[in-house]
Amino acid sequence: MISFEPSSGTCEKSLVAAQVLAALILSAAPLAAQAPPRAVPVEPDQALQPNAAEDFYQRGKNLYDAAQARPDQQSRAAALQRAADIFSQYLSTFPDDSNAELAWFYLGSCYYQTGMVEDAKRCFHTVLNRYGTGVAVGAAAYTLAADHYHKGEYAFAAPLFEKYAENPSKPEDRPRGNTYAGRCYRLLGRDSDALTSFRKVIDDPAGGLFAPEAKVAVAQILLKKNKADDALKMFEAIINSPTYLAKTRGEAALGASQAATLLKKPDLADKYLQLIMSTPGMEDFVADAQVTLMRNRFEEKKFKEVVQLFSRSSQAAEGEKEAARLMIAAKSYMELKNPTRALELFRQIETIVPPESNLAFEASYYRIYCFFQIEGHHVPEQVDAFLEIYQDSRPNDRKVQTALLIKAESLYDSGQAEEAAKVYPKIKAEYLLPENQAGLYYQRGWCLAEAGDQEGAIRSLTDFIEKYPKDSRVRSAVAKRAMAHVALGQSAKAIIDFDQITAAGIKDEYASMAWLESARLRRSENNINDMVLRYKGLLGNVDNLSDKLLAEANYWIGWGLFKQDAKDKSEGRKESVAYLEKARKLDFATYRAHAGILLAFCHYVLQQPDALADEINLAVDGKYESDIPDQVIQWAAMQAFNAHQYASAARFLKLVSNSDEPRETPKEVWRYLAKAELEIEDGKTALEAANNVLNVEEDPAWKADALVDKARALYLLNQPVDARKVADEADQMRPQGRTKEQLLLLSGDLFVKAGDFTQAASNFLTLVSFHEDSDLRPLALFKLAATQDKLGDAAAAQKYRDQLKEQYPDWKAP
């Protein structure tokens, strides 16, 4: 941090905008131009002066400081905008005040942090042009320099970094600014100016943090200027500085080896290269050191040592550097009579460097040499140099045409189908040996198909099939031609080819492909019947299919059977169930939802409530239940309810209900949800459902029924007073049937809870006496016997228990 006093005598607590802005600007700086750190100019505390200008300025400063402390961007931006307004007004009112310099800087900082970059720069330039010197000038210069540096505008950035160094807020700002100025000059190729900047860093007492970089840069520039002696001395001084980072010392060691080489000191050069190879932290320079050592050993004809050095590091370099490393190693392998290994390396070189480079040309030449050493002739990927020499002068020569064929097949075999497709049409089949002509037609057909020239592929494959009908590759050629027809939309011709393959009855990969691709073709055409037949053909005629293909076939057969417009759709859907279930079992991840939805439809159509319930539960677990229609889920819910599977019924009914918009849900859903929740004793949900019924129900009978359910829910929630009020309201509507029975039973329970066992017994007795067909009657008998016990009439209690056992021997008490 730095301190200074404004000209008015007032003091500032902090000046932090420069470091914030520089960090924002330089965070995205290119790697080649490493970003400078943030600058932090500050001021010491001093009491405010009692004058209007000072107060006006301080208002803006306080707002600015408060904005920096705010954690969220939105509120910080708002505070900065307010501060900017105050600073702007202040400068308009008091343009010559002693705090104007700072105000211009803070105004620029506000603008920059709120995205008004050009306005910010205008303010910073005002500080530079109007005031010339001072820490605010340094901070403004640094911010503008960082902006130019980020954009690669080094010619503009350099003098601004120098301005920053000339106006430091703390001593280390000087070397920092000069370091970045030096970097800019080096990137501009202005080595003399860079030397001046870096030497300022070295001579600066506060330059300790930046001195290592500056010393390395100076030594490198000296070496570039052919001052190897001076450069070597500087490099060695850096290498021998134990406080310097290993990376810095490694860069110096590389420079020292180069200087020693220029000075004809090979042992010294090797010493520093070996230092890099063996010192942790110098990994960035290992590739350069390794290449240099290998080159030195090669020139000394120590080829085994070259190979040993090559094998020492598995860390490959990049681009030209890696190609150079491979080239030296490959030549050494050649000298050591190992052309196979050399050939591998030459091939690698050609994939690294562009073909027009000297390294690529040299690699091609040696590749041909190694090729002849290994086989003598016909290695396809090695023929380019041969064609370059002879193709124009001997266009119809068989060897030239064969070389073209070799090149095309080499490119194709390496996966470069488009490049190979450019070569194949240049080949004149009549000049090839007869045994090579069949291969030309066959390979050209496959290559053109994969390169996108389907018509050309069909022509070439047809030539092959017609000219060489007994060739063992005919089935694969027919298969490839079929796929070319598919790509062109010629489905009829494709089906003919597919059927030609399957008609032979051979169980091979081409039969598998023909059944599968023809089924997929029919699927894309929505020819469901034929699609199903072909997928069944795949299952019935091909062995050892993968689980993925088995799953695909089973799914689409199931889907097709589901979709087929048969007279009895239930039969098709019944048959589809087994296929869909198998598809899901074989490939659960792919067909879990797709098969599950279709299976839900099938079980719905087939009226299979238990199986449908299982599918809905799987859908809920898999989070695709929204894809199953509400009517299917509602039907499953009602079947579960009627089967006394109340938990499932409640779960399903919730899926088709909308508690946020109750009126969008059918009232029967709310009605049966309330009843299901009552059966599983979830009073809270039952109460919500009953209230939703009451909000939309107008029929008196159903309304009374909903009131009874609401009262029952309140009873479960231990709210007997409210339950009694709602029950009485229901009773006033004179309900009939089961609603009346439920009301009598509930009323009796409420009397029991209130301790009025006589009235409770009366309610239970009414239900027992006048509702003989009700499934609630055994429960009423059970409760009636219990109330008689409470009334002390043991004989009556036993009478009703005997009646319960006699009339309902299988009934179990709750």
UniProtKB/TrEMBL annotation:
Q: Name one GO biological process term.
A: transcription by RNA polymerase III
What the entry lists under SUPFAM superfamilies is as follows: TPR-like
Query: Known InterPro entries for this protein?
Result: Tfc4/TFIIIC-102/Sfc4 (IPR039340), TPR-like_helical_dom_sf (IPR011990), TPR_rpt (IPR019734)
Q: Name one GO cellular component term.
A: transcription factor TFIIIC complex
Descriptive protein name: Tetratricopeptide repeat protein
